[in-house]
Design a protein that fits this description.
TIM Barrel; 11 strands; 17 helices; alpha/beta; single chain
């Protein structure tokens, strides 16, 4: 990306984004308790997930926390929609969600899970011998067992990166069967990269009900993503946004934090987004995300915070997953996935997820280390060789240190 194109991209961001109790018989102590409860009550803004009819707050529960108390607090604040996947934390995240919802009325929450099957990262196509109808159903039924429920509300084909994968017959057959058997109410796709193509394919399929897509103020192709999101919403698909806070920090050292509330507002101001799944891991982060619903308009400080990072050329930790780097790398290694691992490690401080993400690619990091000069052209301006060398060190950290 040329220098003047980057400046134009920042201007685009600014344009797009900155669009009665009776009588004295009530004891004073009870009055103060009521007042305290009212004071702590959070404002909720609800939207409906397209033609599914599922209604939930525009802030939902993403999959980063490991403390079930944080999730219970979120539910107590009125959040109802959980996002999880068969692969998260080797299945332990689904187990934790199951523990949190246990004993609660089934109609008091919405569960989305996702099944990831082997695919060629370079082409975005599923691997036929591994991505079968039977494999998908088996993985999903394991998920139901971990969650301790008889059905989920939404079941996704996970982490697609090519439009052709959206209608991959073996998995479509699995989704149809699960829907017919009442094990999922709705089906959809999740996408981290090449979002417009995948979203448009989901719309054109007339099969999928929901799309879960990366969407944030740092995406160099934000206008294209926004356009496809609008098309999906118009067609009646539910639209869920992820990666909303763009890596959490502007810097690897975690000294300059992105304004979390402002970043989330940037996404939620787009009314074609029906809900979002920020990955809060603490009560403080939960409060930051809940604050977005208090007032979706930007404060002067929030505008300043987001503009400052963009106009000062801060790179942040978020990789747009555009895959331009793969074509310009002489070894064509799977850089986008490595950059996602880097973000999980330094932005989210989720070292287990970072290692799980990069584990299949550790052999490729050696090619990068041995390469004399880097030819990679990164749309985000990252020093890719430096970041790969940095994150590859996680290979030497024992798994039990990261649990």
């Amino acid at each position: 990306m040329k220098k003047n194109e980057k400046k134009q991209g920042r201007r685009d961001f600014i344009k797009i984004g900155l669009a009665g109790i009776a009588g004295a018989a009530v004891a004073p102590s009870l009055l103060s308790a009521d007042e305290e409860k009212k004071k702590n009550k959070k404002k909720l803004v609800n939207r409906t997930l397209g033609k599914t009819g599922l209604k939930c707050p525009i802030v939902s529960i993403g999959a980063q926390a490991k403390d079930p108390a944080v999730y219970r607090a979120a539910m107590d604040m009125g959040l109802t929609h959980f996002d999880t996947a068969n692969s998260y934390d080797n299945g332990n995240h689904e187990v934790m969600v199951g523990e949190v919802i246990k004993g609660r009325p089934r109609d008091s929450y919405i569960i989305t899970t996702k099944v990831h099957l082997p695919m060629d990262q370079r082409t975005g196509q599923f691997i036929p011998g591994a991505a079968t109808t039977e494999a998908f159903i088996s993985a999903f039924e394991t998920s139901l067992g971990r969650l301790g429920i008889e059905y989920v509300d939404i079941l996704h084909m996970h982490a697609l990166s090519a439009g052709a994968a959206v209608t991959y017959e073996p998995i479509v057959l699995a989704l149809e069967k699960m829907k017919k058997e009442g094990k999922t109410r709705f089906v959809g796709v999740s996408v981290h990269t090449n979002e417009p193509e995948v979203i448009d394919a989901a719309v054109d399929s007339k099969f999928h009900d929901v799309v879960l897509t990366a969407y944030n103020f740092k995406q160099p192709h934000m206008k294209e993503v926004r356009k496809s999101i609008a098309r999906a919403a118009k067609a009646g698909l539910g639209v869920v946004a992820m990666k909303t806070q763009a890596g959490v920090y502007w810097d690897r050292e975690r000294q300059k934090k992105i304004n979390m509330t402002a970043a989330l507002k940037w996404v939620l101001r787009d009314e074609n987004v029906h809900t979002s799944i920020p990955g809060f891991t603490s009560m403080e982060q939960l409060e930051e995300d809940m604050a977005a619903m208090e007032n979706l308009n930007f404060s002067d400080q929030e505008k300043k915070d987001l503009e400052l990072g963009m106009l000062d050329g801060m790179q942040g930790l978020y990789c747009a997953q555009c895959r331009r780097c793969v074509d310009t790398c002489r070894h064509h290694i799977e850089i986008p996935t490595m950059m996602r691992s880097f973000m999980y490690a330094y932005g989210y401080r989720n070292l287990a997820k970072a290692k799980d993400t990069i584990r299949p690619l550790l052999a490729e990091t050696g090619k990068c280390r041995e390469c004399g000069s880097c030819t990679v052209d990164c749309a985000m301006g990252f020093d890719v060789k430096e970041k790969i060398a940095d994150i590859a060190r996680i290979e030497n950290v024992p798994d039990d240190f990261l649990a």
